[in-house]
DNA sequence: ATTAATTCGTTCTATCACCGAACTAAATCA
DNA sequence: TGATTTAGTTCGGTGATAGAACGAATTAAT
């Protein structure tokens, strides 16, 4: 058989799958119209997809004029993926099916012993989640793991990962693949957040999008033309090292970035201590500001001014349409309001600034997006690496809350 | 005929064309090996391409064992493109053929009357350049015009274009298309520089690349995963508004960016004036520094420190492999050496910093790259918008100096 | 209730792009 | 001179798809 013919068939198959994934239960005639393929071709492909166990008959149309049509839909439990958000304090695992329904989200405190223990913990949580919904292990095809730092796809290592002991020098991807028995993709957690927000959150339909996570540290994720910006060493989005805030040429700024030192939690606490003379945690500072404490408000103002500068820097370089703030600190509405006020004072073009709607779950939503996208691509996709298998629209996706 | 079949054929045709473009004179058997298509298919496609006037026989191989092979090559004068670099002081026009040979580069001072006069000037230069090489007008298929500011593809207007009077509110693209009689693509000049350097300059084979042009102003071009970053309002790369250097919240910084004010020519001159107490032009300052003037050297040091910060900002956000400095000031070797010294003092990961090798011609090289790429795509390309028709490798391209 | 209109899905035939194998042609090697 | 090697063609065959015709099933209209 010809090679190009094989590709041609895959293309058509993919188009059909996409129509079914996106269009819910749909008749063959409708698929033909949508895809511009002829009716018999659709029939043939549908027959094959049904045979292979990816789709099934749903029922028949009725009420319209003309003959009733048989409708088809995805078999949601034909395959599953695992989405993992590995943080310094918590591990989050979710299992999602082909139709993008998410079951069984499990959360647990990260195993403090680090290294292999964390790997085993992730595996255990996966099996636990799967078991909770009676999902057979073999049906899970791949996992996407989000982690802080710069995961290297090639070596499977996570560079510059803070907060998790003992994984600096281990091949996390391989270890996980061994423990789980299927493919594992590593990705930076903030990158997953952008993807998550782009799929189901604040950034729907926005192809030029940035995400800034502010918490104990600061990190950024950037999407350009619908593609993730990873950079050469996967170090794109290391916003902590933006050369302002603290003095960038201070040697200390090479260890903890000049920007991170002043804008993340440590900087906020320090600013409050200097101004007031006593210590307070970040949530306390927010509370005081809400209660009318002017000095606390000043601290937040100053923080927001710095954040606005960060947004301006991103906008000056990449000019995204929207910047989403996330992370425990970035999520605070009081802060975003202030950033919106300060930004036009230091940057002349309009940039939308919003808080993340997915919050702490942004990363796992993003991991799910990548996982399903990979899976769809692997099963039905073209071979082009940048081909984006479009995921179902937000309305049809159920991301139900996990049992705690 | 089937639609997918048509696509399939285009794919194959394109593959053949690519092999011919890249591989110089090449036999059908070799093309078959390279493309993994069968010999007869190649023969068929080659026959058609020859019939359509895109390729021609070149000669025969000899010296090898086995039967001699007929070799084919591109007919370089089958089509031409015009590349235009429209600057505040100079207009540059080049005509290039399908094989990426550039003829007839014309340079002239930009018509000071602006607006339609500039449009007419560009057209005149095009015809002049074409006439100089006896190229019939009809064979020019399209033009790519690089200009400062943010060219909007949709409206054909150039927003925020400094230095050129009377084109703020005119549809430059349409006016040019009317004057020239073929398609015109507008692009930011610094964006063209990145593309140019990526094709024939310092950035060959580097898909994550940044270009900083420092002159009377400052601008940046960014390439991520081989794609240009334009941003929503085509305002990506407006580095002048990076929020450091001068005080970003100073209202003046909204007009002339905080960074631009201190790092571009005005800032350098000002810095010298403050330190020494007398005025000097930028070239003079460089001369003095070269002659051993310590204060002039200090001014350059300070400028380089600021530039290093700019590079750091780009690296923190997008993490390109290399940053190329260009523009009348950025090209100075003395400056780059200093930037290389300062960068590691404010940014922890390695970033290569180089001067542009294409210099003032970077934009026109980039325009040529885009033009030829578009043309190849239009003629033989797949319909995918992001498909990159690969241009011939640097060695085979002759970018001969223009007659002045 | 019968007929008309409409849509669904299949069957049948044709076309197109391509491959593989066999074959011819022309060169070098020994 | 024949063996070897490579180039290119001819011929038959196959897979993916289209288009037209047709039967099937339904609603709307009379």
Give an overview of the whole structure:
Chains A, B: Belongs to the ROK (NagC/XylR) family. Chains A, B: Keywords: Kinase, Transferase. 2 copies of one chain form a homodimer. Helices cover 43% and strands 19% of the residues of chain A. Chain A is α/β, with parallel strands linked by helices. In chain A, the strands form 4 sheets. A 5-stranded mixed β-sheet of chain A has the order 6-5-4-7-10, sandwiched between helices. The radius of gyration of chain A is 23 Å and the shape is globular. The C terminus of chain A is likely disordered. Chains A and B meet through helix 1, strand 12, helix 7, helix 11 and helix 13 of A and helix 1, strand 12, helix 7, helix 11 and helix 13 of B. Chain A binds a DNA duplex (30 and 30 nucleotides) through helix 1 and helix 3.
- The CATH class of the largest domain in chain A turns out to be Alpha Beta
* 3D shape of chain A: globular
Oligomer: homodimer
Number of helices of chain A: 14
Order of helices and strands of chain A: HEHHEEEEEHEEEHEHEEEHHHHHEHHEH
Overall pLDDT confidence of chain A: 88
End-to-end separation of chain A: 53 Å
Q: Greatest chain-chain interface? A: A-B, 61 and 61 residues
CATH topology description of the largest domain in chain A: Nucleotidyltransferase, domain 5
Q: Level of helix content of chain A?
A: 40-55%
Quantity of strands of chain A, as a count? 15
Largest sheet of chain A: 5 strands, mixed
> Which second-level CATH architecture of the largest domain in chain A applies?
2-Layer Sandwich
Q: What topology, given as strand order, has the largest sheet of chain A?
A: 6-5-4-7-10
* Category from helices, strands and their pairing of chain A: alpha/beta
How many domains in all of chain A? Answer: 3
User: CATH H-level name of the largest domain in chain A... which superfamily?
Assistant: ATPase, nucleotide binding domain
Uncertain spans of chain A? 400-404
Measured on Cα atoms, how large is the radius of gyration of chain A? 23 Å
Strand content of chain A: 15-25%
